[in-house]
Amino acid sequence: MGVLLATVVGLFVAIWTVGATGWGEIVSVAARMGLGGLALVCLYSLGVFAVLGAAWAAAAGEPAARVGVFAWGRLVREAASDLLPFSQIGGIVVSIQTLIALGVPRARANASFLVDLTTEMASQLLFTLFGLALMASILMGDEAAMLRPVILGGTGAMIAFILLAFFGQRALLSLTRKLATRFLPGSAAAMVEIERELGTLYGRHGGVALAFLLNLAAWTMSGALAWLILTLVGVPISFWTALSLESLIFTLRSIAFAIPGGIGVQEAAYALIGPLFGLSPEAALALALAKRARDLALALPTLVVWQAIEARALVRPVTPPAS
């Protein structure tokens, strides 16, 4: 019941926070896309989540029939991160608990998240480097020089995160297990099981490679979404320019992972970088607000359904064991 109450309070806080950025502007941009355009953007985004779910399922070594479970977990994760004041970390915890509630073993849910996160970050680095190569051919002279410190710093931070995520997983789990043994003896066995499962999943090289490729496809699809949105609102931009722009935006948002929903970061990034790629300040803001409208259109129903499922689980009668 405490989780349900906290989520309801969080929803009100999130709605107020997003409203502070301007409900009127978000609604105005959504109107420019039209109901059909917004529906198309949402359907396209659901396709991206399907690919992300397939990547997580591949990392977990689960069959294709379970992709929907992992896609739902990924959708809940993004919804919680976008609307609830949890930051990305809170969204991760919620998504793992969602998988466990849907029958994925606890150790596998936790270990597969680590594998999926590593392949997701590695594929984002490749996508960012691809975006930098495109940027070099699109931007010239002073424009590229203005972005160089930001991009180099962001890329360096991403590389550090990837190295830490890959090489530090076992060390972190080992330290956590030792602390659990000392202070929480009951949880030590669970940590050992997660360590064992992590080794098993990394041993499935085909699954890890497939997770990497699917995450790379998801990054590319997410980048192409900017081109689709700008086309719908009547702003001409080349497909490759949109991919390059989005690769830089994603990098900045990844650095600001602790900020719930990237509130303010996304809008500031588009305002700063968009004009360098030929977008007017109005068009850059329209793109940022259109994405915020998409987030609301997907995240609100997702959280309502998720909470309905959680509430039903809380009130479900417990069947007494047979005598």
TrEMBL record:
Coiled-coil parts of chain: none
Claim: NAD is one of the keywords in the record: no
Membrane topology, record value: Multi-pass membrane protein
Keyword annotations from UniProtKB, A to Z: Cell membrane, Membrane, Transmembrane, Transmembrane helix
Short name of one Pfam family: LPG_synthase_TM
Transmembrane segments: 36-59, 80-102, 122-140, 147-167, 208-230, 269-290
Entry's localization field: Cell membrane
NCBIfam families on file: HpnL (TIGR03476)
Protein name: Lysylphosphatidylglycerol synthase domain-containing protein
Biological source species: Sphingomonas tabacisoli
